[in-house]
Write a structure and sequence with these properties.
The chain has 82 residues and is mainly α. Helices cover 67% and strands 0% of the residues.
Protein backbone atom coordinates (compact mmCIF):
# COMPACT_ATOMS: atom_id res chain seq x y z
CA UNK A 1 0.00 0.00 0.00
CA UNK A 2 2.87 2.38 0.79
CA UNK A 3 4.84 1.65 -2.40
CA UNK A 4 2.04 2.65 -4.80
CA UNK A 5 1.45 5.83 -2.82
CA UNK A 6 5.13 6.73 -2.88
CA UNK A 7 5.30 5.99 -6.60
CA UNK A 8 2.30 8.26 -7.22
CA UNK A 9 3.92 11.04 -5.22
CA UNK A 10 7.19 10.62 -7.12
CA UNK A 11 5.33 10.76 -10.44
CA UNK A 12 3.53 13.91 -9.30
CA UNK A 13 6.83 15.55 -8.39
CA UNK A 14 8.59 14.52 -11.62
CA UNK A 15 5.83 14.76 -14.21
CA UNK A 16 3.31 17.31 -13.05
CA UNK A 17 3.57 20.79 -14.57
CA UNK A 18 1.71 22.46 -11.74
CA UNK A 19 3.95 23.66 -8.90
CA UNK A 20 1.27 23.51 -6.19
CA UNK A 21 0.82 19.79 -6.91
CA UNK A 22 4.56 19.19 -6.80
CA UNK A 23 4.88 21.08 -3.53
CA UNK A 24 1.99 19.18 -1.91
CA UNK A 25 3.54 15.88 -3.02
CA UNK A 26 6.96 16.88 -1.68
CA UNK A 27 5.41 17.96 1.64
CA UNK A 28 3.62 14.60 1.90
CA UNK A 29 6.88 12.73 1.34
CA UNK A 30 8.75 14.85 3.88
CA UNK A 31 5.93 14.46 6.41
CA UNK A 32 5.97 10.67 6.09
CA UNK A 33 9.77 10.66 6.38
CA UNK A 34 9.54 12.39 9.76
CA UNK A 35 10.17 15.94 8.59
CA UNK A 36 6.68 17.24 9.11
CA UNK A 37 5.60 20.64 10.40
CA UNK A 38 6.39 19.73 14.01
CA UNK A 39 9.94 18.53 13.28
CA UNK A 40 12.65 20.67 14.75
CA UNK A 41 16.39 21.00 14.52
CA UNK A 42 18.47 21.90 17.52
CA UNK A 43 21.92 23.36 17.13
CA UNK A 44 24.31 23.64 20.02
CA UNK A 45 26.28 26.81 19.73
CA UNK A 46 29.99 26.18 19.75
CA UNK A 47 32.36 29.05 19.77
CA UNK A 48 35.20 28.74 17.27
CA UNK A 49 36.41 32.30 17.28
CA UNK A 50 39.68 31.96 15.49
CA UNK A 51 40.14 35.72 15.28
CA UNK A 52 41.47 35.78 18.82
CA UNK A 53 44.13 33.11 18.21
CA UNK A 54 47.73 33.92 17.40
CA UNK A 55 49.36 32.64 14.21
CA UNK A 56 51.21 29.96 16.16
CA UNK A 57 47.98 28.81 17.85
CA UNK A 58 46.23 28.62 14.47
CA UNK A 59 49.15 26.63 13.05
CA UNK A 60 49.06 24.27 16.05
CA UNK A 61 45.33 23.61 15.60
CA UNK A 62 45.70 23.13 11.85
CA UNK A 63 48.53 20.64 12.33
CA UNK A 64 46.44 18.69 14.86
CA UNK A 65 43.58 18.50 12.35
CA UNK A 66 45.92 17.33 9.60
CA UNK A 67 47.41 14.69 11.92
CA UNK A 68 43.96 13.36 12.85
CA UNK A 69 42.92 13.25 9.21
CA UNK A 70 46.10 11.33 8.27
CA UNK A 71 45.57 8.85 11.12
CA UNK A 72 41.97 8.34 10.06
CA UNK A 73 43.02 7.79 6.45
CA UNK A 74 45.68 5.28 7.57
CA UNK A 75 43.08 3.33 9.55
CA UNK A 76 40.74 3.25 6.55
CA UNK A 77 43.57 1.97 4.34
CA UNK A 78 44.43 -0.75 6.87
CA UNK A 79 40.78 -1.84 7.05
CA UNK A 80 40.61 -1.98 3.26
CA UNK A 81 43.77 -4.08 3.00
CA UNK A 82 42.77 -6.44 5.81
Amino acid sequence: MIDPAMEALLRAIEECDEWPTKVRAAIAVLDRAGFGPTASLRLDEQSNDYATLSASQLKERAMAIVKRAAESEDKELEETVN
